[in-house]
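>> received
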Amino acid sequence: MALNDGIFGGDSFQLTRETHARYMLEHNILPDFFYDLKKDSFQSFLLMLSHEPGKFLAHIYHDLCAEFGGQDNNVRQKEYAPTDYSSMSFVGPGELIPEPGVVIIRVNMPQPERPLLCARVYLCCSGKKFSKRQYYTVEKLELSPDEKNSITPRPDCVLCGWEPEERKGSGGTFFGIKIPRLSQKNEKSRELAHFNTGIEMFSGEDPRVSRAIHMLKGQSAQEENDETMKYTSIAVELKLIHDLFVKGERND
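>> returned
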Protein backbone atom coordinates (compact mmCIF):
# COMPACT_ATOMS: atom_id res chain seq x y z
CA MET A 1 0.00 0.00 0.00
CA ALA A 2 1.33 3.43 -0.90
CA LEU A 3 1.98 5.82 1.97
CA ASN A 4 -0.56 8.36 0.73
CA ASP A 5 -3.18 5.65 0.34
CA GLY A 6 -2.72 4.67 3.96
CA ILE A 7 -3.04 8.22 5.24
CA PHE A 8 -5.71 9.69 2.99
CA GLY A 9 -7.22 6.76 1.12
CA GLY A 10 -6.20 6.30 -2.50
CA ASP A 11 -9.41 7.54 -4.12
CA SER A 12 -9.69 10.53 -1.79
CA PHE A 13 -6.08 11.58 -2.31
CA GLN A 14 -6.38 11.30 -6.09
CA LEU A 15 -9.59 13.34 -6.11
CA THR A 16 -7.90 16.01 -4.02
CA ARG A 17 -5.13 16.27 -6.59
CA GLU A 18 -7.60 16.34 -9.49
CA THR A 19 -9.57 19.21 -7.91
CA HIS A 20 -6.62 21.32 -6.78
CA ALA A 21 -7.22 23.95 -9.47
CA ARG A 22 -10.86 24.24 -8.47
CA TYR A 23 -9.92 24.64 -4.81
CA MET A 24 -7.51 27.45 -5.75
CA LEU A 25 -10.20 29.19 -7.81
CA GLU A 26 -12.71 29.17 -4.95
CA HIS A 27 -10.33 29.79 -2.03
CA ASN A 28 -7.60 31.96 -3.50
CA ILE A 29 -8.30 33.57 -6.87
CA LEU A 30 -11.88 34.76 -6.35
CA PRO A 31 -11.30 36.08 -2.80
CA ASP A 32 -8.15 37.85 -3.99
CA PHE A 33 -10.07 39.55 -6.80
CA PHE A 34 -12.95 40.40 -4.51
CA TYR A 35 -10.88 42.08 -1.80
CA ASP A 36 -8.07 43.57 -3.92
CA LEU A 37 -9.87 45.25 -6.80
CA LYS A 38 -10.53 48.98 -6.73
CA LYS A 39 -13.80 50.65 -7.73
CA ASP A 40 -13.82 50.51 -11.57
CA SER A 41 -12.15 47.11 -11.84
CA PHE A 42 -14.32 45.83 -9.01
CA GLN A 43 -17.48 46.88 -10.84
CA SER A 44 -16.25 45.08 -13.97
CA PHE A 45 -15.56 41.99 -11.89
CA LEU A 46 -19.08 42.05 -10.42
CA LEU A 47 -20.64 42.55 -13.84
CA MET A 48 -18.72 39.56 -15.22
CA LEU A 49 -19.94 37.35 -12.39
CA SER A 50 -23.49 38.68 -12.72
CA HIS A 51 -23.92 38.35 -16.47
CA GLU A 52 -21.31 35.88 -17.77
CA PRO A 53 -20.20 33.75 -14.81
CA GLY A 54 -19.60 30.67 -16.94
CA LYS A 55 -17.46 32.44 -19.50
CA PHE A 56 -15.47 34.29 -16.84
CA LEU A 57 -14.91 31.40 -14.42
CA ALA A 58 -14.27 28.81 -17.14
CA HIS A 59 -11.55 31.10 -18.53
CA ILE A 60 -9.85 31.42 -15.14
CA TYR A 61 -10.25 27.72 -14.42
CA HIS A 62 -8.71 26.75 -17.76
CA ASP A 63 -5.59 28.75 -16.94
CA LEU A 64 -5.39 27.23 -13.46
CA CYS A 65 -5.70 23.72 -14.88
CA ALA A 66 -2.79 24.39 -17.22
CA GLU A 67 -0.71 25.66 -14.31
CA PHE A 68 -1.49 23.04 -11.67
CA GLY A 69 -1.86 20.14 -14.06
CA GLY A 70 1.69 20.78 -15.17
CA GLN A 71 3.20 21.36 -11.75
CA ASP A 72 1.34 18.63 -9.87
CA ASN A 73 2.90 15.65 -11.67
CA ASN A 74 0.72 16.33 -14.71
CA VAL A 75 -2.43 15.34 -12.84
CA ARG A 76 -5.38 15.99 -15.12
CA GLN A 77 -7.81 18.35 -13.42
CA LYS A 78 -11.57 17.85 -13.35
CA GLU A 79 -13.33 19.40 -16.32
CA TYR A 80 -16.27 21.79 -16.07
CA ALA A 81 -18.27 23.49 -18.80
CA PRO A 82 -19.25 27.18 -18.73
CA THR A 83 -22.84 26.01 -18.28
CA ASP A 84 -21.86 24.41 -14.95
CA TYR A 85 -21.67 27.91 -13.47
CA SER A 86 -24.58 30.29 -12.95
CA SER A 87 -25.32 33.34 -10.86
CA MET A 88 -28.08 35.48 -9.41
CA SER A 89 -27.75 39.15 -8.44
CA PHE A 90 -29.68 40.92 -5.70
CA VAL A 91 -29.52 44.72 -5.31
CA GLY A 92 -31.19 46.78 -2.61
CA PRO A 93 -33.55 48.31 -1.95
CA GLY A 94 -35.99 45.55 -2.78
CA GLU A 95 -38.14 42.81 -1.33
CA LEU A 96 -35.21 40.59 -0.35
CA ILE A 97 -32.65 43.33 0.39
CA PRO A 98 -34.28 46.37 2.04
CA GLU A 99 -31.13 48.49 2.42
CA PRO A 100 -30.11 50.74 -0.51
CA GLY A 101 -26.65 50.20 -1.92
CA VAL A 102 -26.30 46.57 -0.79
CA VAL A 103 -25.30 44.14 -3.55
CA ILE A 104 -25.23 40.36 -3.12
CA ILE A 105 -24.18 38.03 -5.94
CA ARG A 106 -24.80 34.31 -5.56
CA VAL A 107 -22.53 32.20 -7.77
CA ASN A 108 -23.55 28.57 -8.20
CA MET A 109 -20.52 26.35 -8.68
CA PRO A 110 -20.46 22.83 -10.15
CA GLN A 111 -21.54 20.11 -7.72
CA PRO A 112 -18.64 19.80 -5.22
CA GLU A 113 -16.95 16.39 -5.38
CA ARG A 114 -15.15 16.53 -2.03
CA PRO A 115 -14.98 18.41 1.28
CA LEU A 116 -13.96 22.09 1.20
CA LEU A 117 -15.04 22.56 -2.42
CA CYS A 118 -17.91 25.03 -2.79
CA ALA A 119 -21.50 24.49 -3.84
CA ARG A 120 -22.04 28.26 -3.85
CA VAL A 121 -20.18 31.49 -3.30
CA TYR A 122 -21.78 34.72 -2.08
CA LEU A 123 -20.14 38.09 -2.75
CA CYS A 124 -21.61 40.87 -0.60
CA CYS A 125 -20.69 44.54 -0.81
CA SER A 126 -21.95 47.98 0.10
CA GLY A 127 -20.77 51.48 0.97
CA LYS A 128 -18.83 54.15 -0.85
CA LYS A 129 -16.57 52.56 -3.47
CA PHE A 130 -17.87 49.21 -2.18
CA SER A 131 -15.66 49.62 0.87
CA LYS A 132 -17.58 47.02 2.89
CA ARG A 133 -17.08 43.57 1.38
CA GLN A 134 -17.68 40.04 2.62
CA TYR A 135 -17.03 36.76 0.82
CA TYR A 136 -19.01 33.70 1.93
CA THR A 137 -18.68 30.11 0.79
CA VAL A 138 -21.01 27.13 1.17
CA GLU A 139 -18.45 24.30 1.41
CA LYS A 140 -18.94 20.54 1.27
CA LEU A 141 -18.70 18.68 4.59
CA GLU A 142 -17.17 15.27 5.25
CA LEU A 143 -20.09 12.94 6.07
CA SER A 144 -19.92 9.40 7.38
CA PRO A 145 -21.65 6.61 5.39
CA ASP A 146 -24.41 6.51 8.02
CA GLU A 147 -25.00 10.25 7.70
CA LYS A 148 -25.13 10.00 3.91
CA ASN A 149 -27.63 7.13 4.00
CA SER A 150 -29.81 8.50 6.79
CA ILE A 151 -33.55 8.70 6.17
CA THR A 152 -33.49 12.23 7.56
CA PRO A 153 -31.35 14.37 5.21
CA ARG A 154 -28.25 15.77 6.90
CA PRO A 155 -26.89 19.08 5.60
CA ASP A 156 -23.81 18.26 3.52
CA CYS A 157 -22.22 21.72 3.51
CA VAL A 158 -21.15 24.37 6.00
CA LEU A 159 -21.30 28.15 5.64
CA CYS A 160 -17.90 29.83 5.88
CA GLY A 161 -16.81 33.45 5.72
CA TRP A 162 -13.67 35.27 4.65
CA GLU A 163 -12.30 38.43 6.22
CA PRO A 164 -9.52 40.53 4.73
CA GLU A 165 -6.56 41.22 6.95
CA GLU A 166 -3.48 43.07 5.77
CA ARG A 167 -1.97 41.42 2.69
CA LYS A 168 0.05 42.15 -0.43
CA GLY A 169 -1.76 42.02 -3.77
CA SER A 170 -0.36 39.91 -6.59
CA GLY A 171 -0.81 42.53 -9.30
CA GLY A 172 -1.19 42.23 -13.06
CA THR A 173 -4.13 42.07 -15.48
CA PHE A 174 -6.51 39.15 -15.82
CA PHE A 175 -9.38 38.88 -18.31
CA GLY A 176 -9.12 42.63 -18.90
CA ILE A 177 -9.42 43.41 -15.19
CA LYS A 178 -6.51 45.16 -13.52
CA ILE A 179 -5.34 43.59 -10.28
CA PRO A 180 -3.48 45.97 -7.93
CA ARG A 181 0.15 45.38 -7.14
CA LEU A 182 1.38 46.59 -3.75
CA SER A 183 5.12 46.86 -4.14
CA GLN A 184 6.11 49.79 -1.96
CA LYS A 185 7.85 49.01 1.33
CA ASN A 186 5.50 51.22 3.27
CA GLU A 187 2.40 49.48 1.93
CA LYS A 188 0.90 46.90 4.22
CA SER A 189 0.30 43.30 3.29
CA ARG A 190 -2.73 41.27 4.30
CA GLU A 191 -3.98 37.71 4.39
CA LEU A 192 -7.46 36.27 4.21
CA ALA A 193 -8.99 34.93 7.40
CA HIS A 194 -11.28 31.97 6.71
CA PHE A 195 -13.85 31.15 9.40
CA ASN A 196 -16.50 28.47 9.84
CA THR A 197 -19.79 30.04 10.93
CA GLY A 198 -21.03 26.75 12.38
CA ILE A 199 -24.16 26.96 10.19
CA GLU A 200 -24.77 23.77 8.21
CA MET A 201 -26.32 24.03 4.74
CA PHE A 202 -27.44 21.79 1.89
CA SER A 203 -25.49 21.69 -1.35
CA GLY A 204 -28.81 21.54 -3.22
CA GLU A 205 -32.19 22.91 -2.26
CA ASP A 206 -33.24 22.47 1.36
CA PRO A 207 -35.59 19.44 1.64
CA ARG A 208 -37.13 20.93 4.77
CA VAL A 209 -38.40 23.83 2.66
CA SER A 210 -39.72 21.33 0.12
CA ARG A 211 -41.69 19.42 2.75
CA ALA A 212 -43.18 22.64 4.15
CA ILE A 213 -44.34 23.77 0.70
CA HIS A 214 -45.85 20.37 -0.07
CA MET A 215 -47.83 20.54 3.19
CA LEU A 216 -49.07 24.03 2.41
CA LYS A 217 -49.95 23.40 -1.23
CA GLY A 218 -51.29 19.89 -0.90
CA GLN A 219 -51.54 17.92 -4.13
CA SER A 220 -50.62 20.68 -6.56
CA ALA A 221 -48.45 19.87 -9.57
CA GLN A 222 -45.04 18.43 -8.70
CA GLU A 223 -43.29 20.68 -11.22
CA GLU A 224 -44.85 23.76 -9.65
CA ASN A 225 -43.85 22.58 -6.19
CA ASP A 226 -40.28 21.96 -7.31
CA GLU A 227 -39.98 25.43 -8.81
CA THR A 228 -41.51 27.09 -5.73
CA MET A 229 -39.24 25.10 -3.43
CA LYS A 230 -36.17 26.08 -5.41
CA TYR A 231 -36.75 29.82 -5.16
CA THR A 232 -38.04 29.66 -1.59
CA SER A 233 -34.81 27.90 -0.60
CA ILE A 234 -32.79 30.59 -2.36
CA ALA A 235 -34.72 33.33 -0.54
CA VAL A 236 -34.23 31.64 2.85
CA GLU A 237 -30.50 31.25 2.28
CA LEU A 238 -30.17 34.79 0.94
CA LYS A 239 -31.88 36.14 4.07
CA LEU A 240 -29.30 34.32 6.20
CA ILE A 241 -26.39 35.70 4.15
CA HIS A 242 -27.91 39.18 4.16
CA ASP A 243 -28.24 39.20 7.96
CA LEU A 244 -24.70 37.95 8.45
CA PHE A 245 -23.38 40.67 6.15
CA VAL A 246 -25.52 43.64 7.20
CA LYS A 247 -25.67 42.88 10.92
CA GLY A 248 -22.14 41.56 11.15
CA GLU A 249 -23.23 38.38 12.90
CA ARG A 250 -20.76 35.53 13.39
CA ASN A 251 -21.56 32.18 14.96
CA ASP A 252 -18.10 30.67 15.24
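>> The longest helix spans residues 222-247.
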